[in-house]
Amino acid sequence: MKKLSESECLELKKSTSELKEAIISIAAILNKHGAGEIYFGVKNSGEAVGQMICDKTIRDISKSISDNIEPKIYPEISAIEISHKNCIVVKFKGVEAPYFAYGRAYIRVGDEDKQLTAREIENFIIRKHKEKINWDSQYSDIKIARINKTVLSEYLERANNSGRISFRFTDPAVALKKLGLIKNSKILNAAKLLFCDDNDLEVQLAVFAGNEKLTFLDMKLLRGNLFSVIRQCEDYLAEKINWSVEIRDFKRVEIPEIPLEALREAIVNSFCHRDYYRGESNKIAVFKNRVKIYNPGEFPAGYEPQDFIKGDCEVVHRNELLAEILYYSKDIEKWGTGLRRIASECENAKVKLEFKKEKNGFATVFYRNAKEMIQDGAGEKTSQKTSQKTSQKILKLMKANDHITINELSAELEISERAVKYQIASLKEKGVIERIGHDRSGYWKIKGV
Description:
Layout: E1 10-13, H1 19-33, E2 35-40, H2 55-68, E3 69-70, E4 76-82, E5 85-93, E6 100-101, E7 104-109, E8 112-115, H3 118-128, H4 130-133, H5 149-161, H6 172-178, E9 182-183, E10 186-187, H7 189-195, E11 203-208, E12 216-222, H8 226-240, E13 243-248, E14 251-256, H9 260-272, E15 282-286, E16 290-296, H10 305-310, H11 320-328, H12 338-349, E17 353-357, E18 361-367, E19 374-375, E20 381-382, H13 384-400, H14 406-413, H15 417-429, E21 433-436, E22 443-446
Parallel strand pairs: 1-2, 11-15
Antiparallel strand pairs: 2-5, 3-6, 4-5, 6-7, 7-8, 9-10, 11-12, 13-14, 15-16, 16-18, 17-18, 19-20, 21-22
Helix pairs in contact: 8-9, 9-12, 13-15, 14-15
């Protein structure tokens, strides 16, 4: 027989004197994997030392398991010979998680048993009854008239182009039914979130002057259908982070300090995996040294972000229906690979990344470059000193023509429109300039001039 080794599904005990600890391990393994084995008479090292066995030994183990694990399980207990030593093996399985040992719930993490918190137990119960209580599969309060037909039609076009669905938009009710977003003639919460402009979705965005939440430079509150909110979040971060320009093959290439694909993946993940039963908003915060994307709803109990980066565990969805719809349109590329994709993008770009399991939620944190870099007219990486010169040139042009457009500024200064927008946003934040009127017909007001 192959030498035994402790794992997430297997526990070794020197003797039945450790029966209580073994019962806790049974509950922990059941809560993580639904099945496992316990051996008595084997050291942690895998060395068989033997165990005194009689009929009463087997009965005592069976009774202790029956008395102290809820819901009840009915394990297979038998004597076994290992390296010519008499040992006992207990094989068990169950599908009624969460299981409790001596009135407490545990979960297996590596070869250790971790006690579950009240919130983690609640999440277990939600997953157990997910078809009945998953938020995205519940009936909403909206009628078909509130569905944004344009957003639904554009979504179906993307999903068709991806090759993941094969029907076109004809009627909103028909389309939603084919997508599984209508049941018993009622529109589900997932459809309301995705295709209704007037819903409960809310995102708070902010830029802070330093590394703490002390001085605000900008605040914004977003509402709307999910696709619109995702796009606005992407645009907001693209505008607030730093950019550099390099010349590659005689062409100007704009480079963000944080990969946009990683930011987008983190944004989509934050909506896909959040707990919509909670009233708290999603939050995106831009600090001087980092960008933090947060969603309410704890990380799956018993797992670590690294488990999903390695790809050696099953996919866990809090909102399975929502994830399925986003998969059809390639808004998420593949189930369960989001963290891995974010980590890969950041590794390639040499951007420091952190996934944080917080008390009531989860956050993806991207650390920014210590030295701010933006574009100058020569198309090279430049410092804040050059940035100030560019700002002065913009102010001079605005004084000469207060109706000058971003496109005209870009051409005059020979820098990208994105660079111009960055400079203008900075000048607005400092209170130096103000835009009066509409973007097309308005004009620039320089304060104090």
